[in-house]
Design brief:
Number of strands: 4
Number of domains: 2
Structural class: mainly alpha
Helix content: over 70%
Strand content: 5-15%
Strand order of the largest sheet: 1-2
Shape: globular
Radius of gyration: 23 Å
Order of helices and strands: HHHHHHHEEHEEHH
Length: about 260
């Protein structure tokens, strides 16, 4: 607990808060410049204000998921570090996964404050940072070339039996992100499915069944959001689906945990 007290010290808040403040200032500078550029090219001011209000409104609920991630990690890594990671460059699924993997690598059974040492935190923090900086580093060298692949190409027209048909080709970036996410989710779920063993024709868990149950609840919740979007033609619900699924899954984890 002494280590956790240091991780929550004013010095840590000053360092991490200073970085977050710098990024916030940069965002405000770009927002002001974008607003002025919009006025310069003749975009209606009232329309820009509506876009700003709508964007700010739709950003509230998705940010709840980030807040939940900060709360979840703060119990073992202190509040300033998760706050910095998830405010600037980190992603919730990445930070939690890497933190747990690093904790196991340094000999901790699980990510917890009671087993945390200064050496363990240093290793965990270093790995969390090192594993995610490459996007920024590589963008310096090949960002311009890569950005062209993220733009959907113009539809190509092909002729079949005398009839012309347009083919919409999917961008490379969409395919890469989908493949990466499927791989990430598959590896995560497989680690718990691997805990199922068969003995005398019966299947039993060597670990806990709770993570798989919560994953199923989260998947059903996301499917529900997608169904609502399709049936109600409500594309705006995409901004809330991830955070909503997380809240539903976490609520289910509380109740299922009491049952188990």
């Amino acid at each position: 607990m002494e280590v956790l007290a240091k991780l929550n010290s004013p010095v840590m808040y000053l360092i991490c808060g200073g970085i977050v403040l710098l990024v916030a200032i940069i965002c405000m500078v770009f927002a002001v410049r974008a607003y002025r550029a919009g006025k310069a090219i003749g975009i209606n001011v009232s329309k820009m204000k509506r876009v700003i209000i709508a964007s700010a409104t739709f950003a509230v609920l998705p940010s709840v998921g980030i807040l939940l991630g900060v709360i979840a990690l703060s119990g073992s890594l202190g509040t300033p570090w998760p706050w910095l990671r998830l405010s600037v460059i980190g992603a919730l699924h990445y930070e939690t996964q890497v933190a747990e993997a690093a904790a196991e690598a340094v000999g901790m059974e699980k990510l917890s404050a009671s087993a945390m040492t200064a050496s363990s935190f240093s290793t965990i923090a270093l790995l969390m940072s090192f594993g995610i900086i490459w996007g920024m580093v590589l963008m310096i060298f090949n960002g311009k070339a890569y950005s062209t692949k993220l733009v959907l190409p113009k539809p190509e027209t092909v002729e079949t039996n005398g009839k012309k048909k347009k083919l919409n080709l999917k961008a490379f970036g969409d395919t890469a992100m989908t493949a990466m996410f499927i791989g990430l989710v598959s590896a995560y779920i497989a680690s718990y499915i691997g805990q199922i063993v068969s003995a005398n024709g019966l299947f039993t868990f060597t670990g806990s069944w709770l993570p798989l149950a919560v994953a199923c609840v989260s998947a059903l919740a996301m499917a529900g959001f997608l169904l609502i979007r399709e049936k109600a033609k409500a594309d705006w619900i995409d901004s809330f689906s991830i955070a909503g699924s997380m809240l539903i899954a976490m609520t289910a984890a509380i109740f299922l945990g009491k049952i188990g």
